[in-house]
Amino acid sequence: MSEAVPAPAPAQPIGVIHDIGYRHYEGARLGRGHAFAALTLHSLRGVFGLGRTARAKIMPFVLFGVMMLPAAVSIAAMALIQRQAMTYPSYAVVMQPVLAVFLAAQSPYLVAPDLRFRVLPLYLSRPIATADYVAAKLAAMAAALFLLIAVPLTTLYIGELLVDLPGPPHSGEYFAALATSVVFAVLLACAGVALASFTPRRGLGVAAVIAVYLLASAISGVLVGVFESISRDEAAAWAWLINPFFLVDAVQVWLFGTPPNNDGGYPPGVGGPVAAAGVLAIIALSVAALLLRYRKAASS
Amino acid sequence: MNAVVAGITYRAVLGRRRVLLLILLPLVLLGLAVLLRAVGSTDERAVVTLMQVYAIGTMLPLLGLIAGTGTIAPEIDDGTIMHLLSKPISRPVIAVTKFAVSASLLAVFAAVPTFVAGYLLLRGEAGIAAGFALGALIGGIAYSAVFLLLGVITRHAVTIGVVYAVVWESLVGGLVPGARNFSIQQWAQTFAGQLTSTDFFKPTVTMGFAVPAVLIVTIGAVVWAGQRLRVLSLTGDE
Q1: CA-CA 20 to 30 A from A60: which of A216, B85, B88, B122?
Q2: Cα–Cα nearest to B181, from B200, B190, A97
Q3: Angle at Cα A279 formed by Cα A277 and Cα A281, nearest 5°?
Q4: Residues of A whose CB is below 8 A from B35
Q5: By CA distance, what is A229's nearest residue in B?
Q6: Helices B91-106 and B60-70, axial angle in degrees (round to 10)
Q7: With the CA atoms of A289, A35, B236 and B224 taken in that order, what torsion angle do they form, in degrees rounded to the nearest 10?
Q8: Torsion over CA of B117, B120, B126 and B129, rounded to 10 degrees?
């Protein structure tokens, strides 16, 4: 504007420095550990929709309610007809579609928005490294899944203690199931978050995670059906392990000696160690994929 | 139908990572068929299991979900749908075009591989290959319409679609016989049953129910999607 009207140069400078009250942060710098904990807690709250819109809370809490249903029914059955309707080691295996839907619906939320809006450099400008970011997201998802399995299990156990069935309580089975739920949580969280991180689109992430679960379970189901129909039972026992939930169940059977939750059992002998190795391999592969993915995403 | 809109939609669905999933699912079906052939179990019962559990029960709803929501949901998510809606093309025509694209993708990625897998295992025996291919085709059309509608109605189309496909069709349909009447999978199997003549496959829903159901659901969903597009608002959550 001043160029448009050539005016005589002012005799003295007219620039003013305003004091807009900017202040430096003088408090304590809490550092990397605290930033990691804050990101983990924020992500965990986000998985259950806390701190998000009401609509984001519907899905996780409906699924949580569905997970609690068998526990409620089983407690009622114990009180009324003195019988366990649902055993602890079978809980997560029976409820596998619910867990898979929860994983598919919620894991893209953890990673997709940050990738899509390219805000990763903002995180990394804090004392957080790429590995910390990945670890925080994985820890949040694993904690959410653990809560999803462990809360109904614990409710069921408290119910059993209160109802006081004849005979000793199934404490051994309860603690075995609780330990296995850690394996479930870590395996599912790693696989789900790794798959979801490959697309910045939430919808496609949901579809990818559920597609991999349904693929695995359908392939396993078809192969088991076919192998059993031509009476190759040993091959059928191996085919169960393609489904990740039965894979973890095989580890549970091997570690704690619980009864298998499929029809026909798992391969005897090396089956347990192989299943455990499979679980570890999937976790290692997923974490490696995530680290590679975020090394690339962080620089873009 | 609008050729330009159709072309853009094809490019959008096939040009991204979405196409990887679209290819992976039928590839697994063909892989399973080859494996069954290798272990020598090419009897009708094994093939019917493969078709029911994998082709119709898993692959078809997933492909429907990916193609059906993929034709419109990403555009609504981005807000780029506005460029399309501001053109002088009637909104129902846009909905019909997107539906046709999704249905044709399902015909290519679901019905054709189903036929190839069936033919690989049984040749023309008992009409299984042709029957299940027809079922996949009809089911694919119905899924396209329903998931297109979901994509227009809600931002969480994929999640809701997954709940429908996994919880309603598999769990509820497996436990409550009445619920099978309201499952696209079961209608697809009814159509498959029209061409097959094997003892190992009995559809649970009658043709008299399935035909009107497919027609009403498909036409109703596409028309409703067109109407929803006329009043679409982009005030999103998150």
Answers
A1: A216
A2: B190
A3: 65
A4: 223
A5: B46
A6: 150
A7: 40
A8: 30
Instruction: Write out the two tokens for B84.
Output: 């399309």
Residues 6+ apart with CB under 8 A from A77: A83, A84, A85
Nearest-angstrom CA–CA distance, A233 and B192: 30
CB contact under 8 A, B73 and A101: no
Residues of B in contact with A105 (CB under 8 A): 159, 162
User: Which residues touch B107 (CB under 8 Å, ≥6 apart)?
Assistant: B137, B140
Q: Which amino acid is at A50?
A: L
Distance from CA of A239 to the nearest CA of B (A): 12
Digit-coded pLDDT (tens) for A7-32: 566 677 788 888 888 888 888 888 89
Cα angle value B57/B59/B61 (rounded, 5°): 70
User: Cβ separation of A203 and B62 shorter than 8 Å?
Assistant: no
Query: In 3D, which of B172, B206, B203, B208 has the Cα closest to residue B189?
Result: B203
Q: In chain A, what are the domain boundaries?
A: 31-299
**Residue A216 burial by Cβ neighbours in a 10 Å radius (0-12, 13-18, 19+):** buried
Single-letter amino acid code for the residue at A91: Y
Residues of B in contact with A99 (CB under 8 A): none
- Reported ipTM: 0.82
Confidence of residue B197 (pLDDT cuts 50, 70, 90): confident
Give the mean pLDDT of B166-192.
80
